[in-house]
Amino acid sequence: MELKTFSAVLRFTLQLEDHAAQFYQKVASSDKYPQAKQIFLAFSENSRKRKQTLEKTARESVDHSLLEPISGLFEEHYAGSPVLSESMSYADVLVAAKQLEEIAQKFYGDAAGKISFIATVSRLYTRYAQERSKTLATLQGLP
Amino acid sequence: MVQATKTEARKAELPTIKNYVNGEWVESKSTRTLDVINPVTTEVLAQVPVSTREEVEEGIQCAVEAFEEWRETPPLTRARYMFTLKNLMEEHFEEVSRILVHEHGKTIDESRGEVRRAIESVEHAAGIPTLMMGYNAEMIAPGMDEECILQPLGVFCCLPPSNFPAMIPFWFLPYAVACGNTYIVKPSSEVPLSMNKMFELIHEADFPPGVINLVNGTREVADVLLESKDVKGVSFVGSTPVARYVYAKATSTGKRAQCQGGAKNFLLVMPDAPLDKIMPAIMNSVYGCAGQRCLAGANIVAVGDIYEPLKQKLIEAAKSIKVGNGLDESVQMGPLRSKQAKEKVLSYIETGLKEGAKLILDGRNIKVEGFENGYFIGPTIFDQVDPKMKIGSEEIFGPVMCIMRAKDLDESLDMIHQNPHGNAASIFTQSGKWAREFKHRVQAGDVGINLGIAAPVAFFPFSGWKDSFFGDLHGQGFDAINFFTERKVVISRWF
Known about the structure:
By secondary structure, chain A is mainly α.
C-alpha cells in the first residue's frame, strides 16, 4: 500500500516502533537468551521513546498549510519485520534483530525525504535512521 | 405522514447543541433548529438552534458584566488561563481533529493541522504580559514624562466561516480575552461541533463566568450582535459580499471591525521553476481542504515557455489525488462542505465550459465507493482560462484549477492586479530577482515565494488586501493586540 499522506507515514512508523519494542522486550524477558538481556531491554526502551517523541513532535508540527501529497513510498518495501518464535536460537534472534534494524533504518531514511515539508519531523526521521544504524552496528558487534 | 413522523422521531434522538453563556451550558428556547450534516455520509450529526434575540442579548449582557472584573485581572493571571486552555487543547487534540473531519469533511491530516494552528494562537496570546506592554518617554519637557498604555475595550464577538471552524475563532478569541476583553463566538451553523467541543475545554479551563460565551444561530443572531451598542468590535471571516455587509453594519454602530472576505489567489510558475519540486505544493494549495480555503491557489499562471510541461505535470499530479472519507489516512482530499457548496462549484464548472475554457480534467462524476451520496467533486482543471472569465475572476471555493498563460512577470502581475481580490499570491522560481520583484510589486496581503499556501503564523497578521479585507487591523500578531486594545496617553508632572 502506498503511503500517500503524512498521517499514513506516521502511522506506519509507529507500527514499526511498536513491533521493535515488543520484539526486543520479548527477547529480553525470555530465559532462553540471557546473553544480552540488558542490551535488548535498552533497545526496547529506545523504541518506546522514539514512538513517544514521534507522536508528540508530529502533533506539534503538523500544519494544514504545509501538507503535501506524498508519492513513491510503499509499505510493502519495508515488510518482513521478523517475529520472535519459540524455536529461535540466540543466533537466529541476532539475525532477526539485524533484519529488523535494516528495515527500520531504510524506512526512516527514505521517509525523511518524503515528508520534508514538515521539516521538524523529517529531521527526526533522519536522526532515527542514524540511531537504527548504530543499533545495527551494536548488534553486529555482539558475540 | 409516516415518513414525517419517522423523521421527527429521528430528529428527537439527535443531540441539540447548547449555548454557553455566563459559564453555563444553556439549552436554547428557540423552536428553530438546523441540521448539522456530515458531508461524507450525509448523516445528520446534530441539531443546532437558531438562538432567539433575547438569548443573544442575554449573552451580551453577561459579557458586559464579566468585563469589569476580567479587565482588573492581571495580564499574567489571564495568561495562565491561556496555558491551561493550551494544555487542554493538546490533551483533546485528536478528539477535536476527528470532530472536524465529521462535521467538515476535510482529511484527518488537514484537521490536525487546523487544530495545531488554533493552539498556536493560544500559545502566542499567553505572552500577553509582554505583548500588551505600552511605551513611555521620559522628559518630553522639563519635569514631564509621557506614557502610552494599552487597555481593553469591552465585549467583542466573532463570526467565523464554515471552512476552518476550529481554527478561525482562535485568530481572535485568545488575543481579545488575554487583552482583558470579554468575548462571544457565533459559530457557523453548518459546522458548530468543533467549537462546541472547544467550549467544553474553555469551561474546563474555568474562565470566570461570562468571559467567553457561545451563541449558536444564523445571520439573525449575527445581526443582533452587530446592532448591539454593547459590543465594541467584531471579527468576521467569510465571502466578500458578507464581509462588506458586516463591515458597514458594524461600523455604523461605531464598532471596530476586521472583516476578511473572499479570494482569488494566483500562483505564478516562472520558466525556471523546478516542476517536480513545486508540484506537491501546488496540489496542496489548489486541492487541500477541497479548495475551500481563502488561501487556496486558484489560478495557475504559466509564465513563458513552461506552459506545456507544467500543464502535463499538473494533470498527472491532480489525477493521482485520492478522494474519499477524511478519516481514512490514505485519503488526500475530502468532499465539499455541503450540498449547496457542491452545487455552486458544479455551476461554476458549467459556466467555465460556456465561457469557452477547456476542461482538461473533469471531477464532476467522481464516485467514492461506500460514500456515493457524499458531496464529492474530484480534482478539476480548466485550461485556456482568461482572467476576465467568471471562473478566472470569481472565487469558486472548490477543487477547480484554472490554467492561464502570461508572457512575462509584468503580464502576470497585471492579471493579479486586475482581480478585485488581494488575499494571497505566490511565485515559484529559482530567481532571486524575480522573487524580489514579485514580493515588492504584488498587490496581495499574503505572499508566498515557492510556497503554495502563504498562511501567516500566529505572530504575524493575516493580511488580506483589496476586496479580501475590510478594516485596518488584521487578525493575529500585533494587529490583534492593537485591535483589541485602546491606547491611553498619560502625561505627568510632579511638584
